[in-house]
Amino acid sequence: MLGAMRHLRAQSRRPEWPQAEEDRAIAQLQALWTDAMPERERGQAIDYRARLTARDPGLAQAFFANLDTTNDAVMQVGRDLAARCIERLRAAGRHG
């Protein structure tokens, strides 16, 4: 599992998406969260992707592209880890 997590961290380092931009996007999303409080209290669904895109299209595009890439990497690490576990269990069953 630790090997899979190291692999995920290596994949998630993207020079085209610096930490400063991540921080800026998170700050914008936190502001949108606060701004949407009355709507949330009324039970309305909030489309934060659309709101961030309206506020800062370039930042939103880069943020969600990075998020999609990171999510894909997480899912691949999960699939790889599951496959390794299954293979080890099968191998243990053949030898035990």
Structure description:
It is a single chain. The chain has 5 helices and no strands. It is an all-alpha fold. 83% of the residues lie in helices and 0% in strands. The chain has helices at 2-12, 19-35, 37-41, 48-55, 57-95. Helix 1 (2-12) runs antiparallel to helix 5 and helix 4 (48-55) packs across helix 5.
Q: What keyword list fits this structure?
A:
96 residues; mainly alpha; 5 helices
Quick rundown:
The protein is mostly helical and 96 residues long. The protein has helices spanning 2-12, 19-35, 37-41, 48-55, 57-95.
Terminal residue distance:
23 Å
Report the principal-axis shape: elongated
The number of helical elements comes to: 5
Main beta-sheet annotation: none
Derived from helix and strand composition plus strand pairing, the structural class reads mainly alpha
Helical residues, percent: over 70%
Averaged pLDDT, please? 86
Are there runs of 5+ residues with pLDDT below 50, and where?
none
Would you list the SSEs in sequence order as H and E?
Answer: HHHHH
Over the alpha carbons, how many angstroms does the gyration radius reach? Answer: 19 Å
Report the portion of residues in β strands: under 5%
* Strand elements, count: 0
List the helices and strands and how they pair.
Layout: H1 2-12, H2 19-35, H3 37-41, H4 48-55, H5 57-95
Helix pairs in contact: 1-5, 4-5
